[in-house]
Amino acid sequence: MEEINKLNDKKLINGCANITGGGLIENLTRVIPNKFCLNIDLSKIKVKPIFKWLKQNNIKDHEMLRTFNCGVGFCIILEPKNLNKVKKFFTKEYKPYIIGKIIPGKNKVKLDKKIDWS
To answer: What Cα–Cα distance (Å) separates residue 46 from each residue in 32, 64, 71, 94, 104?
Structure first.
């Protein structure tokens, strides 16, 4: 992904994760340093139609997040002050949006609120 390479060259990102097999939770835990936690607001996730369809088959939320990206294909970890600069590197179709923040903590990932599957 050339956008990420450009952002990295300009030192605008602190980390990133491609959300593939292993889902959102497992892939993000790999890039969170010890003594820090990614606090994800699940209500911020823009769920793609395919995942809404899958959810209709009685798959539990935790299993959906553990197995699928639920529409979040790539995560960028950055300083909040760099968000507008980072957004300029992407087309409207792939504009980054905030789903969480890094906080001090023992757990690598903390999930808040719920995904809107409707």
So the answer is: 22, 14, 6, 12, 26
> Cα–Cα distance between 60 and 90 in angstroms, integer?
33
Per-domain residue ranges of the chain: 2-112
Does residue 99 contact residue 41 with C-beta atoms inside 8 Å?
Answer: yes
| pLDDT 10s digits, 70-100 | 989 899 999 999 999 999 998 888 889 999 9
- Which architecture, in CATH terms, is 2-112? Alpha-Beta Complex (3.90)
32 in Cβ contact with 108 (< 8 Å): yes
- Percent of the chain at pLDDT > 90 equals 60
Cβ atoms of residues 69 and 23 within 8 Å: yes
- CA 17 to CA 76: how far, in whole Å? 7
**Entry pTM:** 0.85
